[in-house]
Amino acid sequence: MLLGCKCGLVLRVIVMEPEFSDHSPLSVSLDDRQHKSVKPFKFFNCLTQYSEFKILVQQKWSRGITASTSPLVWQKLNALKMKMKLKQLNTKELLAINNKIAELRGKLKILQRQMEQSNDHQMLCEEEKSLKLELENGIELRRVL
Question: Which regions form coiled coils (predicted)?
């Protein structure tokens, strides 16, 4: 028979043959097994920048849960399944950022080809500067996420 607990300890009991006794001897062993630990949830402030973040939190936290302050927050986080939802949100936003970066790189490449062939460098230089700044911001945002 095996008995386990959340702390990772497992109690193993083996009922042995009584042989010459009228008692059934037991063999008891305590096994300390390491369970796969759950990775702690890390909250990144940049998640609050997403337009869907506030809506997601409001929907899940508006449910009526009664408990004292600390368990209340924990229960609401569990109700939100925040880790999974925020991971999905982060993946979606990161994909959008990657697409935007690819688009900006393409525009920059086209613009630089135009600059090689054009005499109107002033306007194209301003546009190039703007695109480079936008691209730099996108890359920095992706790095943070």
Answer: 94-121
